[in-house]
Design a protein that fits this description.
The structure is a homodimer of 142-residue chains. Chain A is built from five helices and six strands. The first copy, chain A, has 142 residues and is an alpha+beta fold. At the A-B interface, helix 5 and strand 6 of A face helix 5 and strand 6 of B. Strand 6 of chain A pairs antiparallel with strand 6 of chain B. Chain A binds a DNA duplex (30 and 30 nucleotides) through helix 2 and helix 4.
Chain lengths: 142, 142
DNA sequence: ACTGATCTTGCAACTCAGTTGCATATTCTG
DNA sequence: CAGAATATGCAACTGAGTTGCAAGATCAGT
């Protein structure tokens, strides 16, 4: 019940429209973060306007439903923040794994890396949040 | 002597041209990573072509002189990788601190965060490199 | 120091992701 | 079910970054 697109949209105060349901289904169905392009591909036949898709993804992100990840090559990837939809996307600690071979981005659970932050604090920086990006080979590609 | 632009260019097998010297001086003179735009600003009067600047920065990065940082808002920032020019920019472990107030990006020394990587390896990911981004308030802004 | 191969520069024209404005359609609250 | 609020689709635009090309600068070898 929890993962029903319509419920989720309502939960995040987003109007329930066919486009949003389709996009959300695609995102829910993917283990990895998807680009605007990826989503368009997976919605071939539904013929969703590119502007609408941008706006949809931005609405999702604004409301905290999805997480917008900047990539090395200046693209945005979007992913449902938490598989269980329990934690909001405003959480402070993120980690992403970028596969060098297939370029897919995986969201990983991250424990805080206290030592990193401590040394920054010593240098006069006040750390409020952090993002960790790991590069390498994903389980599929190695 | 070490920080003389001409010497540095030579050291990195880059041809010594007026444009490159100017750009390098700007980068050397900045404690923070600069965007194409920032650099253009600081070179007002020298009237450097935007394409040339892009190509210059890319050459620098290819040769390992500078470090190209993708920002939240889809810009690139460029910074001399190491203040002492001792370590090449091809090093695998990077950390950046992004100030929430002034939006400046600082390069920070980073010790490896082994626990992070270990847990990824357990999950089937092979970690080859990593990037850490910390957000918060820099010494100037707090 | 001069020559020539090689790399750099500057300009114009282009590409492409993403945005804006606006008119129309849809949602959902009362 | 009516009406305000929001979403959609289209066309035209924006702006960072790229490409092609001709002219200019660099530097190694003589």
């Amino acid at each position: 019940m929890k993962r029903d697109p319509r419920n989720i949209l309502q939960q995040y105060k987003l109007k329930n429209t066919p486009v949003r349901v389709s996009v959300l289904e695609v995102l829910l169905g993917s283990r990895v973060a998807l680009s605007h392009n990826d989503i368009t591909e997976r919605l071939k036949g539904k013929d969703i306007d590119k502007v609408t898709l941008y706006r949809t993804l931005n609405s999702f992100t604004e409301k905290g439903l999805t997480h917008k990840v900047p990539t090395e090559d200046r693209n945005w990837l979007y992913a449902i923040f938490d598989e269980d939809l329990l934690r909001p996307a405003t959480d402070h600690y993120h980690a992403h794994f970028v596969c060098n071979k297939c370029d897919k981005i995986y969201c990983l659970p991250v424990e805080e890396h206290q030592s990193m932050q401590n040394s920054s604090i010593k240098m006069g920086f006040k750390v409020l949040s952090s993002e960790v990006r790991l590069h390498g080979l994903c389980p599929v590609c190695q």
